[in-house]
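Quick one:
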Amino acid sequence: MTMYPDRSARSLGIPARILMLVVACAALVLAFRMGPRFDYVSYLRQWNLVLSGQNPWGELPQPYGVNAYGPIHNLFALLMPMGEIVPKLAEVTIYMAACWRCIAVASRSTRGLPLYAGAAVLLFHPMTMIFGYVFGANDLVVAAFIALAFVDKVEQRSGWAGFWLALAILLKFYPAIYLTFMMLDRGRIDRKLGISCAAITGAGFALAFAIWGTDVSRPFVFATERGSSLLSFHYSLYHFSWLVGGDANVELMRRWDVAIMAGLWLVSLLLAWRLRLDWLIATVLGSLFVMLNYKTGNPQYQMPFIAASALLLLFRGTAGIRAFTALLPYNVLIAVHALMYFAQPSQAWTALNFYWGFTAIALCLYAVLAFGLVELTLRHRPKPPLRAASPDREYPAGKAPPTSQPQNDIDQPARLDHPLSQAVGGVLEHRSPVYPR
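Output:
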């Protein structure tokens, strides 16, 4: 299977298009019937501030907190005069359009179960349905922009991929993590992607600064000051403090959590670069690892990861299936959490005994990262010197003297097709072939 879909190939047929329209209409009806819920209630108050000409990043009465979003979030206020539910419907519409394009492009080169499974994950994952369609969290739009960026990157449109990523960053800030991994393309840097994203993001923030002044920076300050929550490994440590030597160390990590996350981010980037991982696999695995170590792990932050993991099935063939399978336990865990949260929010953690599963998966990802560092270290060990043949030793006729003899297994060049690599889903040993440009 080629990395780049054949643009001349036939796209979705009429039955598939009708089915997609039915699903989109059903999602819109669900969003409309459920009305304002969850964070969407505070969105409405923030948008009213925009329409009244006030500071959209001003303090709101508890429990609505502050506006922790970027400038594009304020643009949805323009839809408010048509009805308070219209921005929510617009969010669902944007996501459905992105899903349509992802599935249409993938159908040119992917067939059978991977195509159907990838489409099902995109459209029907419980986390996406509950926190996106029902609650109207704006991370649904972030997931749409990231999915569109991935498709354009697959189709070698790096400039457009940077455009969609910039929109995602201007809505929420954490998509910057995705940008850094997407720029690393099998040991090469995609400068066009980086320049496009940086230019549009910079222009967006400059315009917001011209309109609202320095208050544009308030979400950044708020992100560094807020505490640990929900789907964050830092939050799990409050329940399993013995993993790091006690409560005192947990508190120390909490104070330095931003620096710790930045350090792990850099380590993950180094691995992706030195192991020359495929950019899509590196982005999905690396972004999940970094987000697990971000202290504020709200459930809705998982929607872009879910969309990205679905694209593994749609665009990466066997390697994508193996990577998706490795991440399947986490996908199932957050799906169950979303269902429990919707059914009984106050009892979600107790009923699921969530921390055991979440902590185990986080530790497994740490193990994958550690294994990658070991592989990287071994692969770059200097080769043992050649041992010269002894001039005094006689060899049988027709047998040449040895020119090199590894002393032990450590002296063997490390290989990324090691069985342990295969055990973690074939992610680390994946080598993308060189595709025609």
